[in-house]
Amino acid sequence: MSVNLNFVGDIGLFKSYEDNKTDPFKEVYLPEADFNIANFEFIGHDDTFIKNFFDVQIKYFPSLTYLEKCNLEKFSFLSLANNHIMDFGVSGVDKNISLLQAKNINHFGIGCNEIFNTAEIHKNKIKILLIGCIGRGRWSKINNNGCGPDEMDMQKLKSFITEKKNKYSHIVVFPHWGSELVDVPNPSDIKKAHELIDSGASAVIGTHSHIIQGVENYKNGVIAYGLGSFIYSPKEEFGYIKNRKREYSICFNIVLDEKSIVDYKVYYYLLDKENIPRMVFSPTKKEIKYFNRLNKTIGNKSLYKRKKYTSLLVREFYSMILRLIISPRKGFRHYFKYFTNRY
Predict the structure, then answer these.
(1) Which of 80, 185, 210, 233 has the lowest tally of Cβ within 10 angstroms?
(2) How many domains does the chain divide into?
(3) pLDDT over 70 percentage in the chain
(4) Could you tell me the pTM of the whole model?
């Protein structure tokens, strides 16, 4: 007896999907599984929503009416532990949670009281605990009156896993982490992932980098460092710099029995012209070389540093200029807090 799970990365339903009258969920093919799980990056909004941050881009967010019509039910569980979930404050989150509940979609990784707001999977006598989390930022509970995505406080997280591991067959951690646009995992994330496996997690499956990263076997667990952007429109992103690698994503399929990981497979996807992810059934030699290289570069600190400076910092500098143009005063305040770790 086993449970088969699909994990995909960021679902960013830019307003353009709605404008084009496209429901990407109807178009997407996923491997056969008992449950599909994703990170819900851009929530729905309406005219009553108020921006929680000065630089919130309305074009990122579809209407609630559009979301109600979308086939979101393709996903059984959605993590809300990400850096955009609080863009319209607590009231925006509450309305979206109500929409998910109406569609019988489970959510996890956000709340007002608990340290970790988890979700559980029960099937074939197998119990799986899902934990969603993200590092501290302006979206954090401490900055939003105690409500927000669950924070990736490593000491608390490791203690939580240690406390729960004997009550569940498996614990899967779904962190929103990594350096954006860098396809080599952050060395600090590698250390964290190993510690989480050592504490009792069976798998650590990452989102947020908006580019795919490698997969690693570690002891009795597995780590998929970055699944990339699954449903997304990269060219509409604030500060976008052209990079075809951003159009790839991963569906990480994992099969679990009561005691161990039975098997896992990595399925690669590529966005088409309408920004619908299509499975890469017959990868080219160039693609195969790239996919294989991702696994080989895990732990390469010098390569990580080089890519961070050539990819991430260029984009962040461009984004900083745009934010300062939008509002010099608020932009300066934002980056002062960001660079001095005052969020």
Answers:
(1) 233
(2) 1
(3) 97
(4) 0.93
Residue 341 lies in a domain: no
How far apart (Å, rounded) are the C-alpha atoms in residues 312 and 65? 35
How many DSSP H helices and E strands does the chain contain?
A: 10, 16
Q: What's the whole-number mean pLDDT along residues 234-260?
A: 91
**Amino acid letter, 126:** I
DSSP 8-state assignment for residue 337: H
- Note down the domain range covering 83: 3-298
Distance CA 204, CA 81 (A): 14
Domain-located, residue 107? yes
pLDDT at 2: 97
Q: Is the pLDDT of residue 305 over 70?
A: yes
Q: What is the mean pLDDT of residues 155-178?
A: 98
Does residue 174 belong to any structural domain of this protein? yes
DSSP 120-182: EEEETTEEEEEEEEE--STTSGGGTTT-EEPB--HHHHHHHHHHHGGGSSEEEEEEE-S-TT-
Tell me the CATH number at 194: 3.60.21.10
User: What pLDDT does residue 127 have?
Assistant: 98
Give the β-pairing of 106-108 and 77-79. parallel
What mean pLDDT, rounded, does the chain reach? 94
